[in-house]
Design a protein that fits this description.
This protein is mainly α and 305 residues long. The chain has a single domain (35-304), classed as ABC transporter involved in vitamin B12 uptake, BtuC (Orthogonal Bundle). Helix content is 76%, strand content 3%. The protein contains 13 helices and 4 strands. The strands form 2 sheets. It has a two-stranded antiparallel sheet with strand order 1-4. A two-stranded antiparallel sheet has the order 2-3. β2 and β3 (155-156) form a beta hairpin. α11 crosses α12. The radius of gyration is 19 Å and the shape is globular. The protein starts with a helix and ends with a helix.
């Protein structure tokens, strides 16, 4: 394990001690399980964002795509009367398609990632409001409610879903040709292209995977809330970028790991949970996230010198 990860573990442990002193409620099992559940949703988004940032890109559309995927699931069940499994596939496919759309525009049409995904963010959010007329759609399917609120061995099911996605992502990055290509692309795109790797294909598939993760997040929102909310996912891109940067993934690409992203998600989850328990307004959460991202960029700059 990298030294940075040990540092994160120590910092998380210190935060837990401080929060326990300030509010004994923090260390209760029920609250810690809630913290894990909340962190898992951000972790899923962070996994997709880690893939993209490793290539030297970024995906600002992840929150809006998650919202659109949740709406696709809701419409499929409530209006089209599809079964839950086809509806789940439709939600995940929506995310993957929008992710691939990002990838094609960025890799084949040479659009700048930040500008491209900003445009797609607006498109996805606009479609979400158009399809729902700005109203929530309640989804009462038992399986979805079970996923959102059920537990296995006392652990929330959502945590297991996040762990499975982490395992898939970890295997891809560390044990496949595609994963090695992602690191190479982020390190030096031109050299990677000259070595014979189809960089356009790698980028497209990477953004498609990020979109898939966004689709999973959208589904988890539905499972947790029991409804497709057109407003969900707002600020998710900030959270996903923050947990990725905290975990040690260079925002310049080529360096990083999913293990660090997991610890970053737990750290952000701890901060958010702690601020809520201490009745500190949520504005400070956004402030802290912004500061963390800036510090992460500055750290990478200093390391390059």
């Amino acid at each position: 394990m990298k030294p940075r990860n040990f540092l994160l573990i120590g910092f998380i442990a210190l935060l837990w001690i401080i929060l326990t002193v300030l509010s004994p409620h923090f260390i209760k099992i029920s609250n810690l399980l809630l913290l894990l559940q909340q962190s898992s949703i951000v972790m899923v988004a962070g996994i997709g964002m880690t893939f993209v940032i490793l290539t030297g890109g970024i995906d600002l559309s992840i929150g809006s795509v998650a919202a659109l995927s949740s709406v696709t699931l809701g419409i499929a069940i409530t209006k089209w009367e599809w079964g839950v499994l086809p509806a789940l596939l439709a939600g995940m496919l929506t995310g993957a398609v929008f992710g691939m759309f990002n990838g094609v525009l960025i890799s084949y049409f040479k659009l700048q990632p930040m500008v491209c995904t900003l445009g797609v963010m607006s498109i996805a959010r606009g479609l979400t409001y158009i399809f729902t007329s700005g109203r929530s759609m309640f989804v009462t399917d038992r399986l979805l409610i079970r996923i959102g609120n059920g537990r296995i061995g006392g652990i929330p099911i959502i945590v297991f879903i996040a762990v499975v996605l982490f395992g898939i992502g970890y295997m891809i990055l560390n044990y496949t040709y595609f994963g090695r290509s992602i690191y190479a692309l982020g390190g030096n795109e031109e050299a990677t292209r000259l070595s014979g790797i189809d960089t356009r294909k790698v980028k497209t598939l990477t953004y498609a995977f990020c979109g898939f993760c966004a689709g999973v997040v959208g589904i988890l929102y539905v499972c947790t809330l029991g409804a497709s909310e057109p407003t969900v996912g707002q600020g998710l891109e900030l959270n996903a970028t923050a947990v990725t940067a905290i975990g040690g993934t260079s925002l310049l690409g080529g360096i990083g790991s999913l293990v660090g992203t997991v610890f970053g998600a737990v750290l952000i989850g701890t901060i958010n949970n702690g601020l809520s328990i201490l009745n500190i307004v949520s504005y400070y959460q956004q402030l802290l996230l912004g500061v963390v991202i800036i510090l992460a960029v500055l750290l990478e700059r200093f390391k390059k010198k």
